[in-house]
Design a protein that fits this description.
This protein is mostly beta strands. Helix content is 0%, strand content 50%. The protein has no helices and eleven strands. The protein has strands spanning 3-7, 11-13, 18-26, 34-40, 47-53, 59-61, 69-75, 78-83, 92-98, 113-114, 118-123. The strands form two sheets. Strands 2, 4, 5, 6, 9, 10 and 11 form a seven-stranded mixed sheet that branches. A four-stranded antiparallel sheet has the order 1-3-8-7, with no helix packed on it. The radius of gyration is 13 Å and the shape is globular.
Length: 124
């Protein structure tokens, strides 16, 4: 069983920055899969924000965060999401997730293991 733990969420003003971290505390997933970040707000579906293909580092970004968010790996067990130029619409619970089998980077149903989430609140 893969266990994921997110951290780094906070309350910031619009224009500010945060760096989220996702630590893998146990388990294994194949290299030809994605490690992703999703966010969710009340009443809305979980949205794929960014992801990295573990094997070669290829990245995916949602259009809404391109140019502002950057996903990176610190080591085999840590994934970061650097968020700059934060907007109120970026507010939500942010989750990291990993796949057992390769699937689309932006689809929540393609991911099998999820962390508990870390809250990001951006005020105007």
């Amino acid at each position: 069983q893969v266990q994921l733990v997110e951290s780094g969420g906070d309350s910031v003003q619009a224009g500010g920055s945060l760096r989220l971290s996702c630590e893998v505390s146990s388990g294994y997933t194949p290299g030809n899969t994605y490690w992703g970040w999703f966010r969710q707000t009340t009443g809305k579906e979980r949205e794929g924000v960014a992801a990295m293909f573990i094997q070669d580092g290829a990245t995916y970004y949602a259009d809404s965060v391109k140019g502002r968010f950057t996903v990176s790996r610190h080591n085999a067990n840590t994934l970061y999401l650097q968020m700059n130029g934060l907007k109120p619409e970026d507010t939500g619970m942010y989750y990291c997730a990993r796949q057992r089998l390769s699937g689309p980077p932006h689809e929540a149903v393609a991911y099998d293991y999820w962390g508990q989430g870390t809250q990001v609140t951006v005020s105007a």
